[in-house]
Amino acid sequence: MRLYKNIARQLKENIRQGIYPVGSALPPERELAKQLNVSRTSIREAVIALEIQGWVQVKLGSGIYVQMAEEEKIPHIQTATDPDIAPYLNEEEEISPFSLLHARLLIEPEAAALAAENMSEQDLSQIQDAYLLNVRDNFDGSTIHIGDRLFHIRIAEASGNDAYAAILRIFLGHGYGAMFSRLQHFFTPQDMPLRSQAEHLAILIALQKRNPNEAREAMRLHIQNVIDTFLFNQKRFQKDEENS
C-alpha cells in the first residue's frame, strides 16, 4: 500500500477514536510529518485523500478541520467525463499525483521523440486537432482539460509503441481523478493552463518538424515545469500556514 494511504488510514482511525474530534483542527502538516516520520508531501497527499472522502476540510490560511467521523457518511465523488475522453478513463484506485508526474517524466519525452520519427500524416493531424481543442478549452475556461489529455495520449499513440500508448491512457485517467483535481486547486496558478498551452505548441512545432531531439526536450521541459510549479506553490502554501 502506498505511503499516503497508510497515513490517511491512521488519521481516520485517530478521528474515529476521538483523538481529533469533529470540528477540531488537525495538527499542522509539519507537526504531523514529524510525528509520523514521513515527508510533508506524503502528509499533503493523505490530507487531500481525506478531504476527497469527506473526513476533513482544508481552509486556506486557517488549517485542516475534521468535519465527519463516520465512514458511511462519506459522499460519492463524481468525476467529470466527456464522450471524447471516456474511453481513456480508468476509474480504479488513484495513483499519488507526484508519483504519476514523475513516471510521466520518464515515459513521455521518449514517446514524443518516437512520434516525431514514426507518426503518419493522420497521426499528426489528430495531434494538431487535440492541440486546437486544448486552445478552445482554455478559451472557454474548462476545468476538465480534455484537449490537454488528448494531446498527450495522441502523441503516445503516434509513437508506434503500443505499451507507451496503453500506459498513457491509464496515467491520464488517474491524472485527472479527484486527488489530482485537488492538487490543481491548491497549487496551480491561474495562468497555468495558458503556460501549458504554450509548451504544447513548442512540442507540436517540434513534431511538425519531425525532430525527435526537439520533441523529446520540449516534452521533458513541459512535464518538469508542471512538477516544479506544483512543488513551488506547495512550499508557498506550507509557508503561509506556518506564518498564520
Automatic annotation (TrEMBL):
Domain HTH gntR-type: 1-69
Record's keyword annotation contains rRNA processing: no
GO molecular function per UniProt: DNA binding; DNA-binding transcription factor activity
Top-level taxon of the source organism: Bacteria
Cross-referenced Gene3D superfamilies: GntR ligand-binding domain-like, Winged helix-like DNA-binding domain superfamily/Winged helix DNA-binding domain
UniProt-listed InterPro entries: GntR_C, TF_FadR/GntR_C, Tscrpt_reg_HTH_GntR, WH-like_DNA-bd_sf, WH_DNA-bd_sf
Coiled-coil residues: none
Taxonomic classification: Bacteria, Pseudomonadati, Pseudomonadota, Gammaproteobacteria, Cardiobacteriales
UniProt keyword terms in alphabetical order: DNA-binding, Transcription, Transcription regulation
Name of the featured protein: L-lactate utilization operon repressor
Source organism: Suttonella indologenes
